[in-house]
Amino acid sequence: MEEKQPKKVLSEQERLELAAQLDKDLDAFISSLEKKRYTEGWPEDRWEEEMAKHPFFMQKSPEPGEELSPLMEGLQQLKYDPQENTEQELADTYKEDGKFYMQHRKFRMAVLSYTEALRYKVGDAAYKAILYNNRSAANYMLKNYRTSLQDAQKALELNPDYDKARWRAAQCASALDRFELCVKLCDTILQRDPTNTAAVEMRKACLAKKATQQRDSRKEARQEREKQERWDRLVTELKKRMVKFEERKALDDERFLRPRLAPLEDFMVSCDENGVLSWPVVFCYPEFQTTDFQQQLLETTTMQDVLEQLFEEPLECDKAGLYRAKKVNVYYENRILGLAYLVDKSKTIREIVAERTFVAFQGTLTFYILVKGSKQEESFITQTRIPLKIEY
């Protein structure tokens, strides 16, 4: 029998030297292998992006229109393939999708999912009622109150005992100011649950809003009636005075009587309860190319009185102090005839407007003030005016 040789015991130094030699041999072996580029996995510079697209690692659902990875497309086809799923399974799948989107506040996607689920004619009335109610909830969050109300009412048709759908319908009716419907729904809710404080508060708020709306409607109707009465009275007085306007349909629509100049645009000719007119008036100073405005000049005022008021304080541009009531003449233009006419300052505004040659423009009276006997007056009188071609 062969005798066993005793096993040699290595010292600590020898062990370290042997380990170093083995590491060196392994490195030499790896270096001698053929080097090949790794092409099977994700690129180093885009591995995080690619991982995010992987169905097992993605943290959010793909957005509509976003390109899907082949694996994701395959899983979706398997999930929604009518060849692999029954109609009930597909309806359930879309129903769960809708729930998922609702939880993540993707309300538009939830609406689409519940709509897809409703396309399948499966499930009993209670099942369909849930789908309609869920879609109603999604539309409500999108503030599509009319559509939400329709879905909630459809859910109630399918399941008259569906309290969630009834409450959603009441919320929509309130948002749409359909007060009678809202009160009716709240009454039904309270018949079934008299302790429902939310329904009590909504019913109370709805009745208050209804009362306010009715009050506002009556006020609006009264204001509209009064506005029409003022307009009719104004038209009557203008016709009585035979006032002429450049605009052919000036008395058919108040828009033609509204002044266009900024200082006067809020002061249309008006008629008080005694039948007295107040006119917006422009006073032009051709010498200085500037203007004065009277927003509500009573027709009972004489032109002399108007001038006295205008020149109570000297015009800033009148350095010579020539513009005084007794030193000026006043004219108006008839643009249809292309002529200027001197105003009798002793006449009232009503008498001047009643003259056969006076024509108002854009609901405004326009007068020109010049110093008597001045070159500016002579130039104003003799200037060439091209008549407007207007047919009455």
TrEMBL record:
<dbReference type="GO" id="GO:0030544">
    <property type="term" value="F:Hsp70 protein binding"/>
</dbReference>
<dbReference type="InterPro" id="IPR044059">
    <property type="entry name" value="Csn1/TTC4_wheel"/>
</dbReference>
<keyword id="KW-0802">TPR repeat</keyword>
<dbReference type="Pfam" id="PF14559">
    <property type="entry name" value="TPR_19"/>
</dbReference>
<dbReference type="GO" id="GO:0005634">
    <property type="term" value="C:nucleus"/>
</dbReference>
<comment type="similarity">
    <text>Belongs to the TTC4 family.</text>
</comment>
<dbReference type="GO" id="GO:0051879">
    <property type="term" value="F:Hsp90 protein binding"/>
</dbReference>
<dbReference type="InterPro" id="IPR019734">
    <property type="entry name" value="TPR_rpt"/>
</dbReference>
<dbReference type="GO" id="GO:0006457">
    <property type="term" value="P:protein folding"/>
</dbReference>
<dbReference type="InterPro" id="IPR011990">
    <property type="entry name" value="TPR-like_helical_dom_sf"/>
</dbReference>
<keyword id="KW-0677">Repeat</keyword>
<protein>
    <submittedName>
        <fullName>TPR_REGION domain-containing protein</fullName>
    </submittedName>
</protein>
<feature type="domain" description="Cns1/TTC4 wheel">
    <location>
        <begin position="273"/>
        <end position="381"/>
    </location>
</feature>
<dbReference type="GO" id="GO:0005829">
    <property type="term" value="C:cytosol"/>
</dbReference>
<feature type="repeat" description="TPR">
    <location>
        <begin position="129"/>
        <end position="162"/>
    </location>
</feature>
<dbReference type="Pfam" id="PF18972">
    <property type="entry name" value="Wheel"/>
</dbReference>
